[in-house]
Amino acid sequence: MNEETRDKLMGVSVATLATALFKRGLRNQVIQGVHPVGRKGRNMVGPAFTLRYMPAREDRNQLTEFRREDHPQRVAIETCPEGSVLVMDSRKQANAASAGDILITRLMVRGGAGVVTDGGFRDAAVIAELDIPAYHTRPSSPTNLTNNEAIAINEPIGCGDAPVFPGDIVVGDDDCVIVIPAHLAEEVADEAVEMTAYEDFVVEQVKAGQSIIGLYPRTRDEHLTAFEAWRKANGR
Amino acid sequence: MNEETRDKLMGVSVATLATALFKRGLRNQVIQGVHPVGRKGRNMVGPAFTLRYMPAREDRNQLTEFRREDHPQRVAIETCPEGSVLVMDSRKQANAASAGDILITRLMVRGGAGVVTDGGFRDAAVIAELDIPAYHTRPSSPTNLTNNEAIAINEPIGCGDAPVFPGDIVVGDDDCVIVIPAHLAEEVADEAVEMTAYEDFVVEQVKAGQSIIGLYPRTRDEHLTAFEAWRKANGR
Amino acid sequence: MNEETRDKLMGVSVATLATALFKRGLRNQVIQGVHPVGRKGRNMVGPAFTLRYMPAREDRNQLTEFRREDHPQRVAIETCPEGSVLVMDSRKQANAASAGDILITRLMVRGGAGVVTDGGFRDAAVIAELDIPAYHTRPSSPTNLTNNEAIAINEPIGCGDAPVFPGDIVVGDDDCVIVIPAHLAEEVADEAVEMTAYEDFVVEQVKAGQSIIGLYPRTRDEHLTAFEAWRKANGR
Amino acid sequence: MNEETRDKLMGVSVATLATALFKRGLRNQVIQGVHPVGRKGRNMVGPAFTLRYMPAREDRNQLTEFRREDHPQRVAIETCPEGSVLVMDSRKQANAASAGDILITRLMVRGGAGVVTDGGFRDAAVIAELDIPAYHTRPSSPTNLTNNEAIAINEPIGCGDAPVFPGDIVVGDDDCVIVIPAHLAEEVADEAVEMTAYEDFVVEQVKAGQSIIGLYPRTRDEHLTAFEAWRKANGR
Amino acid sequence: MNEETRDKLMGVSVATLATALFKRGLRNQVIQGVHPVGRKGRNMVGPAFTLRYMPAREDRNQLTEFRREDHPQRVAIETCPEGSVLVMDSRKQANAASAGDILITRLMVRGGAGVVTDGGFRDAAVIAELDIPAYHTRPSSPTNLTNNEAIAINEPIGCGDAPVFPGDIVVGDDDCVIVIPAHLAEEVADEAVEMTAYEDFVVEQVKAGQSIIGLYPRTRDEHLTAFEAWRKANGR
Amino acid sequence: MNEETRDKLMGVSVATLATALFKRGLRNQVIQGVHPVGRKGRNMVGPAFTLRYMPAREDRNQLTEFRREDHPQRVAIETCPEGSVLVMDSRKQANAASAGDILITRLMVRGGAGVVTDGGFRDAAVIAELDIPAYHTRPSSPTNLTNNEAIAINEPIGCGDAPVFPGDIVVGDDDCVIVIPAHLAEEVADEAVEMTAYEDFVVEQVKAGQSIIGLYPRTRDEHLTAFEAWRKANGR
User: Fold this and answer.
1) Longest CA pairwise span in chain F (Å)
2) Mapping DSSP to helix (H, G, I), strand (E, B) and coil, where does residue B116 land?
3) Do E26 and C151 lie within an 8 Å CB cutoff?
4) What is the ipTM of this complex?
5) Are D56 and D146 spatial neighbours (Cβ–Cβ below 8 Å)?
6) Which region, left, alpha or beta, applies to residue E24 given φ > 0 means left and ψ of -120 to 50 means alpha?
7) Which of D96, D93, D112 is nearest to D104 (CA)?
8) Chain A residue nearest residue B66, CA to CA
9) Beta strand C44-55 with C85-89: parallel, antiparallel or unpaired?
10) For residue range B152-187, what is the model confidence (pLDDT) as tens digits?
């Protein structure tokens, strides 16, 4: 993704992006049920690189499997492009881990922009302190072999009931994670920046005692005038 | 509600209130599954003002709906009486938002005593920092139009499987939220203050090494004597 | 349990223990769905002492029940051996409490090593501040009588879908809780200490830029040499 | 509703109607999770008349309540217009009944076209034999007072996560129940009749060995010719 | 239990019994979520004999376990008293079986009055044809060892969220199963017979066109007169 | 698969197969939560041919999509080999259909051995009458486009939490469906035939009054002798 779009997406909320996608008829792009392992105070932004898990069959998922250099979970960590977000389809099951602190540390060192699973991470308290945004549903200590077999890399997947295609732009904030279809990323980023400016103006107005009726959304002309003045004054 | 009752309810826990209602045969007054968006270090107390959501039908829930000045969600925010708690029946679904930071800010400015939904708020990280108690099940960024249509104001509703009638007294602490039927509020507040005094005494006793048998609940006379002395000593 | 094993288990993670049990064919020993009420920054370790709840029948669960000195919940708190972890089978239902702050305070004063329920605690915000590790699924203010009847002490139970036998060794960290069958505790503790040393080495290597392939798990000889040097250097 | 539309809707499937509504952007009109209490071998068709339940508060829901002649559940049964379908919002909870055989018999005698709840019926085995279509999630013997308070008649409601407005046209077959917005009923009925003719033709073709590619949906001209011949031959 | 009570309970519905218990303040005696494996066209009635399952630990649950003559599942089948209902607490989990056709056949031959699990049976299609009432949540082919360890016989248990004490009277019909506390069985049976007579009268009246208002429940004197005549005429 | 193995698997139950796989350490091969749309009175047996669904993104899932001749759902139906079982990963979501009667009819005509989804079928009442075994969780009328996008053919998938690899042997009976890893099919079929003979013998013995202790499983020699005589007498 281009740097300008990334910068724009660093400054807007997932809520604002969800509304921008809703306008375009896309209602299910928020990854449901995940939250930050540790709050980072900044957005996670990057194209999706995916890993798909299937239910683990016991004979294929002994500890020796990890000794294979081509194990898909390990390969995903080692090949996720710099700046990308690794998104894992764990079938919304957190009874076994999707990954642990060693793998996420490696992803961080390799320049990964973040990681999302609709399952859970082991070593979550450690991952929370790493300098990489991570999102999951809850901590889960059992090794992924217990229930998850990593089976495919960079396929279209579901994650938290949202559709994720490789290359879609993934944005996370302190609340949620959203998936922006790749071809919409730029226009949605632009629109979200505009919306954010107006929302920031609205918050100021509301804190000053203004009613939301006619202001949010704006249906009264007086607010347009005030907003334009505010933009100039605030360089927005 | 009268100020004295409010003051009493500011100083007792939801757990104590739940027991007082249990004594009266009311077992389902705690709103299940909600927690504070951000801890406030003080109770939320106020009469219930309600908003009911139904599943959103797409043709009735486009963004243009918000331009209607009579949209029930907006009207609820603008008409919730000062000192009241806005309680939202979101059918226990948090896949779309019940409200966001702008509306909750407006509610705060208007003097709302708090807000509860059995769904989720968008902009939750912002709401957590506002000076108004808010309770939900989890952050949820999609606009409420995605799944929730605000349909009715101040009807009897369910919230987190608890029955809520307009005017019932809603109390929230750092753990939970409870709904006290309006006609019981005073007597329950009184009883809870008494119970709290005894519980505070008990905690001191237990920390000092006392067994709970005979003490909690009190069945041995010795503890009555000690408690009476403690009340005097502590002005309770 | 012997002190040496306890000390070892204080220094390893539940994730590492889960892998050690997985090697032995035990896949379901993590108590699913519970988390610390308040993080303690240290492990919880101790043999399991159990309490089993069943659904409450209203005529058997009035407040007067607590006046019985042989009420199993009260007896469990008063008889749980020093150094043991009280594990409660609440049938994974948190709509009523498993216990509250007074009982947990008493357990703490009596020397309990910790407490786990697959339901919820009332007064959870207070329990979070106590100097005893406690794990649950969510705060729950209603008295246990509302839905839970304490029926049996120190039976084999299920907790969060894990099997728990009295005397099994229970270990909790900031993420999860695991149950180690009593006869395996020593050997698993030993193995986990070894595994932890290697994992700590691996984290350092990964932070220094090393790939995980061949390192974790170790399949390349070079890492063995490096690890042995690291152990000497770090006294591990 | 007019008789012609009713007749058309008696002859089409809920699946076909769901597709017709999907074309119009309505994706959530099927009442999720309900099935026929007993199969009737014919469709249920009629405008919705609604009843809303809320969680039961014990003091308001003793058996004596039913003695009130204005109890909303009783009133709903006695005032549901002939030819209408009574749709009950039981908040998707089947742990207590929505109604039993006596009330459903009365509804039948009064000419009700059917009844739907997203909870459960008591006396379900009896209701299955009545000559009125009924849909629920599962049998549930406890009286509705146990968990459901009938609170409002003919409001907009949710039922099985579908939006239901009084007067919407409700259609049920052996699989599912769907809610057609009132203003769309005629055009959707017309379209569904057309679709059904083509689908019946397709089934014959497929049974005769035809591939679905190009046939369903029709993209090849040869099938149009064949279909037109089939319509003439079959008087459709 | 005495034969007279059994006979009475053979002729009333679980719905009627649920109402009789509701009058006495017991709201949770219906075993939630279970249904007949095969309809028998007659009630299941008998005192509860219980079996409790816990989560299976793999090393304790190999196939060789069944070779032990004291395996609790086998012992329960062989010691359940004639005329009793075997009630199994499977923790509401049907991913592995509670029992299969061979054991249920044995229970039938031994004179068991029925069997209930809040899990599932394997060989369910065969069990459906046996001459013994059986209730479960769904068919489940995996051997119970996969997830359930039979751990205790004739303890108080939960089954489908209902409390079950050994000796409680269990009644099942084509809809549901209910648990009557032993000490209430006779009076509840008597009352249910009376209620059933009135309900049968009501059904006739309603089918003849009578409104339910004033009739069900009876608040108008005219219906009392009619009912008394009906009883005489019908020998009830 | 060879015809001999298929014949053997036609005559054994899923329960017996589940035990044979359990002996080999495979505990999760039963597809959880599915049942026959209509009972066929015979087993479904065939190698798995898979279709994977992901969450539907609205812009990619308009009705026009079905006009594409390469739409994966249509292609799967047209390319599933004769004698194979089409297994669909619908992410355990039945709020939209996995397929309908036209497609399943086509699959039947093409010689498909059966079809399984962990979602639901539309036109289920029609599919129930077709001469092809079909398994699902519940009827679901909305077109699959509403929530499911068919994305990939013949990949390893999860179905009802069981792992399914293309070519695995899928067996369904009136209760459940199981997935036998391809390399085990022959030996498991052989073993299951043997087990079935013994179980049939046991049922006869139990019906004749024999205790299960020592008989099932067989630990007493007398039963071996009797079984051998029975085999001769019955030609098994």
Assistant:
1) 69
2) strand
3) no
4) 0.96
5) yes
6) alpha
7) D112
8) A217
9) parallel
10) 999 999 999 999 999 999 999 999 999 999 999 999
Nearest chain F Cα distance for residue E165, angstroms:
26
CB burial string F53-90: b at 16+ within 10 A, e below: bbbbbbeebeeebbeeeeebbbbbbeebeebbbbbbbb
Give the distance from residue B40's alpha carbon to the nearest chain C alpha carbon, in angstroms.
12
How far, in Å, are C23, D92, D121, F104, F229 from residue A153 at the CA level? 27, 39, 48, 31, 57
Q: Residue F6's pLDDT is what?
A: 98
Dihedral over Cα of E30, E31, E35, E36: its sign: negative
User: Measuring CA to CA, which residue among E40, E39, E70, E71 is closest to residue E56?
Assistant: E71
| Of E69, E122, E145, Cβ closest to residue F15 | E122
Structure tokens at E37: 């494996």
Verify that A61 and A159 share a domain, yes or no. Answer: yes
Q: How far apart are CA E93 and CA A161, in angstroms?
A: 24
3-state SS class at B180: strand
Over range A48-72, report the average pLDDT: 95
Q: Which of B177, B191, B202 is nearest to B113 (CA)?
A: B177
The encoded tokens of residue B187 equal 């007597």
Average pLDDT value over all residues in chain A: 97
Q: How many CB pairs under 8 A join D and F?
A: 82
Task: Give the relative orientation of helices E185-207 and E3-10 as an angle to the nearest 10 degrees.
Answer: 30
What's this model's pTM, rounded to 2 decimal places? 0.98
E44 and E12 in one domain?
A: yes
Find where tokens 């106590």 sit.
Answer: C130
| Residue C156 in tokens | 């084999």
Let me know whether A35 and A146 are in one domain. Answer: yes
Indicate whether D66 pLDDT > 90.
no
Of A182, A207, A225, which residue constitutes the final position of a domain?
A182
Q: For residue F150, list its beta bridge partners.
A: F53
What does DSSP assign to residue B30? B
SS3 D48: strand
The pLDDT of residue D1: 83
What residues of B are in the A interface, CB distance below 8 Å?
63, 66-67, 69, 74, 77-78, 95, 97, 100-103, 105-106, 109, 122-125, 138-143, 145-146
Instruction: Please confirm whether the linkage preceding C163 is cis (ω < 30° from 0).
Output: no
Minimal CA–CA distance to B94: which of B47, B137, B146?
A: B137
E197 shares a domain with E129 = no
The reply to whether C41 and C107 lie within a common domain is yes
Distance CA D95, CA E27 (A): 10
F122-140: buried (b, 16+ CB within 10 Å) or exposed (e) per residue? bbbbbbbebebbbbbbbbb
d(CA D202, CA D210): 9
Number of domains in chain B: 2
Same domain, E72 and E90: yes
Contact A102 C27 (CB under 8 A): no
Residues 6 or more apart in contact with residue E179 via CB below 8 angstroms? E29, E30, E31, E48, E87, E159, E162, E163, E164, E168, E169, E170
**In 3D, which of B223, B136, B219, B179 has the Cα closest to residue B9?**
B179
- How many angstroms separate the CA atoms of B196 and E102, rounded? 58
Same-domain pairing of A22 and A74: yes
The torsion region of residue C31 among left (phi > 0), alpha (psi -120 to 50) and beta comes to beta
Using CA atoms, how far apart are residues E201 and C92, in angstroms rounded to an integer? 44
Residue D213: domain span: 187-234
Residue E16 is part of a domain; what is its CATH number?
3.50.30.40
Distance of alpha carbon C108 from its chain centroid, rounded?
15
- Residue B148 and residue B212 share a domain: no
Task: Say whether F58 and A28 touch across the interface (CB within 8 A).
Answer: yes
pLDDT at B1: 83
- Measure in Å the smallest separation between the Cα of F207 and chain E Cα atoms: 7
Are E130 and E104 a contacting pair, CB within 8 Å?
Answer: yes
